[in-house]
Design brief:
Blueprint: H1 13-17, E1 26-29, E2 59-62, H2 72-75, H3 82-93, H4 102-111, H5 119-126, E3 130-135, H6 155-167, E4 170-173, H7 178-185, E5 191-194, E6 199-201, E7 211-213, H8 220-234, E8 241-244, E9 249-252, H9 261-272, E10 278-283, E11 286-291, H10 297-307, E12 316-322, H11 328-337, E13 341-345, E14 356-358, H12 361-378
Parallel strand pairs: 3-4, 3-12, 4-5, 12-13, 13-14
Antiparallel strand pairs: 1-2, 5-6, 6-7, 8-9, 9-11, 10-11
The chain binds the ligand O=P(O)(O)OC[C@H]1O[C@H](O[C@H]2O[C@H](CO)[C@@H](O)[C@H](O)[C@H]2O)[C@H](O)[C@@H](O)[C@@H]1O.
Amino acid sequence: MTNQDVVVPDMGIAAAAALPAAPGRALFACRGAAVSSLRGAYGGLGLPGGAATDAGEFLAAAGGRGGAPAPAAANAPPGRTCTSRVVEAIRASSPTRCPAAVDEYDAWTRRHPSALGSFDQIAAAAMGKRIVMFMDYDGTLSPIVTDPDMAFMTPEMRAAVRNVAKHFPTAIVTGRCIEKVCGFVGLPELYYAGSHGMDIKGPSSKEDKTVLLQPAREFLPVINKAYRALEERTKDTPGARVENNKFCLSVHFRCVDEKSWSSLADKVKAVLRDFPELKLTEGRKVLEIRPSIMWDKGKAVEFLLKSLGFDDSTNVLPVYIGDDRTDEDAFKALRERGQGIGILVSKCPRETDASYSLQDPTEVMEFLVRLGQWKLLRSPSPARPRV
Ligand SMILES: O=P(O)(O)OC[C@H]1O[C@H](O[C@H]2O[C@H](CO)[C@@H](O)[C@H](O)[C@H]2O)[C@H](O)[C@@H](O)[C@@H]1O
């Protein structure tokens, strides 16, 4: 986001982060039909009271925190254990080839049409409105690769993002830690919401960006302790890797033999039993560990929109592009807001709250280029918008 004065609202950070330690037990339950009260009022940070927090996630339901956790067996789908379900979810979130039949895919794209094919419709919706761009990183701006340290975006993609940011407030919303993703993106003029929105920083010409919000700051010691425990516990699983994303952790399955996925998931669960203040979610061949606070990418989007002064605005059009399960929180936030456009990056049909789809980062880049051209054509010449 450029040219914007951001006001940081009082979010009650300390109150959100200062959680009482659970009385010594953490249960892991597969999600049943229960959906938590996560969709609370904006800024209402708190603990998920013994219910799941987002689509298909594992949950760490700590006793004594506003609701008794459901017994795992009661919530598990019949005939499947929690571990087998989580392994299936990890596999499904990053299929090596799309298992859908052609007609199934066609039916899905009728419900979630290509954002490129529907560009004129999107442009019409943007008429007279201020577009605000939100983009996920991995799988959206950069292709998925086996080594998380090598997930570079192309110079062409960087140019497309830079150009979009000249015209519209622009933020990267990612599970990565800010430092890592800033290094990949290399555009200091953007806003960044790292660690699944738990670390929000503003544009800065300096190395040290302005912190706008860190709702999980007080979890840092426990995250670091869990990181060390996970490294220790998973070190004998060939290919397993634990990534420290500052306010959350990722255990990577991508380079692990699929036969070992269940035992790796069990190891992660075993470690997490000692950390009832943390919870597990699933991503693309990854398990993500994060503080059990009601904060996600959707809340980060709401925060940034509010900070930019668009909270009650009718003339704003937030556009969110993402590929992962965690991006669904942002799609849902826009849906609930009744404002904005969610674009899912996927080659396969998937249950989603996004309205439109793009197949891969190459199509994302085409969309961004098109958006930049459209804006330029509509800008009164020669006074074009600049950073
Ligand atoms: O919110 P995101 O920006 O999508 O971050 C989610 C995770 O992305 C990264 O992992 C994913 O991309 C890797 C590189 O392409 C890939 O190797 C891995 O299998 C994917 O899950 C990142 O490494 C994780 O820490 C993030 O949580």
